[in-house]
Design goal:
Elements lengths: L15 E2 L4 H11 L3 E5 L5 E6 H9 L27 H11 L3 E6 L2 E7 H5 L5 H12 L7
Parallel strand pairs: 1-2
Antiparallel strand pairs: 2-3, 4-5
Helix pairs in contact: 3-5
């Protein structure tokens, strides 16, 4: 039986615009206890992801000012996305293959949800797949990517 991703996603997703500052993104992460935020353009389409790690390594560690726009520290290449109708097993496999812990869920070009590896792990039927995904994610990736 196919389980759709919409049953596991968090529907209320906090986003930042690509022109907002790193400080604004970090404050939003702190306020809502989240480690990643989708970055959108003025049309609401996802153009990147910014994580607490991105902010630390690409801004703070470089001595960049807090006014740095999110667009300068976000990951913008190859944003892996899911759809609400995607099979949850397929999503777990995609997360493992792409070594990502969070998957934005997009419909009609707009972000409608977010699925974290933890969302999959709490489901007893998906616990094994989440564990396999975590194992794949935790394997060091090619530094050339």
């Amino acid at each position: 039986m196919q389980q759709q991703l919409r049953s596991f996603m968090t529907p209320n997703v906090y986003t930042v615009n690509e022109t907002q500052s790193v400080q604004e993104a970090a404050a939003l992460m702190s306020e809502h206890s989240i480690g990643a935020i989708p970055v959108t353009n003025n049309n609401g389409q996802i153009v990147g992801m910014v994580t607490d790690r991105d902010i630390t390594l690409r801004s703070t560690a470089q001595g960049e000012a807090s006014e740095t726009p999110v667009s300068q520290v976000m990951t913008a290449q190859k944003i892996v996305q899911g759809t609400p109708d995607m099979d949850v097993h397929q999503a777990a496999q995609l997360m493992a293959e792409q070594q990502i812990r969070r998957l934005p869920v997009v419909e009609n070009g707009q972000i409608v949800g977010m699925v974290a590896l933890g969302d999959l792990a709490v489901n007893s039927q998906l616990g094994n797949e989440a564990g396999q995904a975590l194992s794949s994610i935790s394997t060091p990736s090619d530094p050339q990517q």
